[in-house]
Amino acid sequence: MIVSPPSMPDAPPSPEAAPPSQSTVAAPVGSASLGWRLAGVLKTMRPHQWVKNVFVLAPVVFAKEIFSVFLISRAAAAFAVFCLLAGAVYALNDVVDREADRVHPVKRFRPIASGQVPVAWAKVLAVVLVVVSLGWAATLSLPFAAIAALYFAQNVVYSFWLKHVAYVDVAFIAAGFVLRVIGGGLATRIDVSKYIVLCTALLAFFLGIGKRRHELTSAESNAVAQRAALESYTKGGLDLALAGTAIATVATYLAYTLDPHTVSFFRTEWLWPSTIFVVLGVWRFLYIVRNRPSAESPTQEMLHDGPFVATVLLWVGLVMWLVYNLKPA
Predict the structure, then answer these.
(1) Residues contacting 314, CB < 8 A, separation 6+
(2) How far is CA 136 from CA 82, 130, 177, 191, in A?
(3) Distance (Å, rounded) from C-alpha 218 to C-alpha 214?
(4) What is the torsional sign of CA 182, 183, 188, 189?
């Protein structure tokens, strides 16, 4: 299965636009200022969000190859490439979204919106990360580099054009997770199961819809100022989409565990009970969406939620035990 989901524009405002007083963070004086700004640069890259890139490792895990040092090293390199690209995407997003972020109760404290990181620094950071990551990707394989470049280009299109289109914006985010899985397969030269791709797409779409539902609830009358696409969303429509994608995600995963090829490849007929943890994870995410309105994002909040993390770890433990029987296949 796939473990658990970026955010991005209006026409970019003038780089010289100053943050409003309520969101401005006072800069330290003297030598501490540089360290303060560099800390903001690191925060802009969102290291805590890089956990989403574990989708890159899915092909190795489900090919029963985690004991291959060579393949794991290539998968780890692919993971790092996507982390650097994600950092570039977040920097780009925050530059484009800085005016909208300044009216958000939590996002106004982001380094670019608050003035901790100058816009010029953020643009240079994005360029450097893209050049380094794509160069590294090319050393793994040209097809993988092409997927990495497509991932970044897709996020650029999202940031400047499609993030204002309801549901299409979420579909583009989901596509980014699919590209991570395909990229992991290309970097390790492992064929990726169609079930894995479909489960990834459905799960990512479900998480994205949940994020929009949370934003619509928490923003209330200020929704459009925080994210223009929210004007075209309705709570009823999002609830329906959440229910549909939740059911489709669980059903697809269950079908994968019962598929004859899966049973034959893993040499076990008992993978299907792991579906219970998928159901529990989906239910817990829905709980977070509806009951944590003050959180910046439900996809971020779930990483700090004890019951959700416990559910994921139990799923991982059961799947690893069934698939690997605690030893190399």
Answers:
(1) 277
(2) 10, 10, 20, 22
(3) 6
(4) positive
- Taken in order 3, 40, 106, 6, the sign of the CA dihedral is negative
Strand residue runs (E) in the chain = none
Q: Are 146 and 182 in contact (CB under 8 A)?
A: no
Does this model's pTM top 0.90? My answer is no
How wide is the angle at C-alpha 141 spanned by C-alphas 137 and 145, nearest 5°? 45
223, pLDDT greater than 60: no
Quick one: CA dihedral 306, 309, 315, 316, positive or negative?
negative
Q: What is the dihedral of CA 293, 295, 300, 302, to 10 degrees?
A: -60
Phi, psi of 302 (to 5 degrees): -65, -25
DSSP letter for each residue of 59-72: HHHHTT-TT-HHHH
**Rounded distance between C-alpha atoms, residue 62 and residue 71, angstroms:** 13
CA–CA separation, 72 and 78 (whole Å): 10
Per-residue tokens: 38: 């560099």
Asked whether the CA dihedral 133, 135, 139, 144 is positive or negative, the reply is: positive
CA distance 153 to 157: 6
CA separation for the pair 156, 279 (Å, rounded) = 34
For 297, the enclosing helix (H) or strand (E) is: none
For 152-210, the pLDDT digits (tens) are 999 888 878 888 888 998 999 899 999 999 999 999 999 999 999 999 999 999 999 99
Among candidate residues 76, 270, 239, 238, the one with its CA nearest the CA of residue 166: 238
